Amino acid sequence: MNRGILCPGYQRPLRWSQKYEKSAQGTSSPCVLATPNTSTPVSQCLSPSGCLGQLAPSRTAYAFLEGNGYETSKELTQPSGATEQAAETVPLACPSVNLRTAERLSPLAFRESVHFVQCYSGVLARVLSIYDGLSSPIRAAALSTWRRSSLLFSAFKFFVGLYRAGSDSNSPLRLAVDEARLEILNQLSANLSSVTDQVPAQNLDVLLVINMFGLSSSWYDLSDLGLEHYTVAATVVREGHVITPRNRRFFEEFLVYWWMMLSFACSPDSCRTSKPPTLSHRSSTEPRMPHPLTGVSPESQVLLGMVARLVLSQRRMVLEQDTTTADAVQRSLANVEMARHLEHELLSLQLPPADLILDPGDPHTSVLDLLNIARAYRESGLLLLYHAHPDLLTDQTHCSAPLHATKSAANALEPRRCLSLAFDILHLLGQISPTSGTRTIEAILLVIVSGELSLRADFALAPTDHATIIAISEPHSHATHHDNSEAGIRQAVLQARADVIARFDRIQAILPFNTIRRMMSLVFETWRLMDSGFNVSWVDLLIRNKWEFLMI
C-alpha cells in the first residue's frame, strides 16, 4: 500500500540519511561486499564503476532455493533499451513506497540501486552464512527478489542498521533500527495471515525472512530468543505450503541450527522445542551443496543440541531441585542412558567424503574448512558430554581412539582426557583459514573448549598417564607441540586460552553483537573462578546468572 510516508532512515535516491548521523562524522560508512573482510565506502559501492561484475549469482546458488521466483541474473541487470524494466519494481526508500508505481529510473540510477542492494545482501551473506560468494543461497535469493519483495527489502535495512549499530557502540542508528524492525513485524503479521493462499514465491520470501529475523533476535535484544518466530517457521515448513522438497531441506537445516542454539539458551520446561526438526531423507551418495549454517553435517549440530539439552537439564536439576527424591533419581538414571546413546551416536557419526561436497565458490572458505568445522562440532559434543558424564570414559565399549584408555587408569584421568580433547578441538579450528566464514558458527565451540582450560595443578597431565601417551601418538593432536610436565601443560593451557581469545576477536570482527561479548564474559568469569580453586562449569554460570540468549 502506498501511504506516501517517507522512510526516516533513508532519503532518495537510495542514500543514507544524515538525520541520525553525528554532525562531526564526515566519512562514509563501510559497506560489506561479496568477499568477506572487504570494506568499501558506500559512495564507491553506489558508483557505476563499482562491483557490477560480482552481482550475478550462478545457478549453483539455487541448489537450495530453486524455482518459486528465485531466478538467475536476468533479474539483476537491465537490458539496453529496456527502460520499462528499469522502472518496473525498484524499491526506493522503504516498503511504504509502492514498488510497481515507483518513478522511472534511468539506467544509471538502476545500476546504483542494484549496487545499494548488493551492499545489503553482502551484510546478510556475511553474518548469516558460513560462506559468501556467487554460490551463497542467501545472497542469490536476495539479489533475485529485491525488486518485488518489500518484506525482503525491509529485512535488508534492519540487518544493515543492526550491523552498523553493533560495530559502533555510539552509533545514532538505534531509532532507525527500531523502525525497520517494526516494518518487518508489521509485514510478517500481514503476510502470515494469508501465507497458505499466496503464490509459492511469496511463501518462500516470508519463510526466509522469518528464519533470518527470528534467528538473529538476540542481536537486537539479548533476552529475545525468537521463540515465536521459530514456532511459526517450523509449522510452515512442516505443513509444506507448496514448498519444493529441496527448499524444504534448506529450511529444515536452518531450523536445525536454530534449534541447537535454543538448546543452550532455554530450559526444556519453558521451551516447546524439545524435539529437533526432522530432516528429509538425502542419499549418502548424492553430491551436496553446503548449507549456509549447518555446513556439510547438520547431524553433528543435531547431536550437539541434544547433548546441550541433556546437560543443561541435568545441571538445572542439580542446582535448583532436591536430587534425593525418587523422581530425581529416576530422571538421573534416564539421563545416564541418554548420555550413553548420544555418545554412541557421536562416535559413529560419519561425515560425507570431500569428493561429494560441492565447492561453495568462496575463496576464503574451502571444503576442508567445512569438514574441519563439522569434526569440531562432533568432538565438542563429546567433550560437553564427557564433562557432564565422566563415568562414560570408564566404559571401554563406548570409547575409541584417541579417547580410549585402560579402565584402571581412566578413573584418575577423566579431567585430563577432557583437556586433551579440548586441545584437539582447538587444533582442528586452527587448521581452518583465519578468514573463513565458518567463524560465524564457531563461538559456541570456543565456550565449550574454554571450560576445560583450567590452571589448577591437579588438572596437569602427568608424564606417564595413558591418555597423554595416546594423545601424543596422534599426529593431529595439539598435545604434540608441548611437553607433558606440569609446567609444560600449564604453558599449553595458557597458549590455548590465548588462542580462544584471538579466535573470539576474529569472530567479533565479523559479528559485532552483544551475544559475542556476553560469551566472552562467560568464558573470562569461568576462568577466574577455576583459577581461584572453584570446581565450576560455564553451564552452571549460565544457569545461575539466568543468561538465556542465542550464542551466535
Summed up, what is this model?
It comes from Cladophialophora carrionii CBS 160.54. With 552 residues, the protein is an all-alpha fold. It folds into two domains: 10-16 and 29-265, no CATH class; 298-544, no CATH class.
Order of helices and strands: EEEEHHHHHHHHHHHHHHHHHHH
Report the sheet with the most strands, covering strand number, pairing sense and barrel closure: 2 strands, antiparallel
Neighbour order of strands in the largest sheet: 1-2
Helix content, binned percent? 40-55%
Rg, rounded, reads 25 Å
The count of domains is: 2
Mean pLDDT: 73
Structural class: mainly alpha
Low-confidence stretches: 1-64, 67-103, 396-410, 460-482
| Total beta strands | 4
Instruction: Tell the overall outline.
Output: globular
State the distance separating the first and last CA atoms: 35 Å
Q: Beta fraction of the residues?
A: under 5%
Number of helices: 19
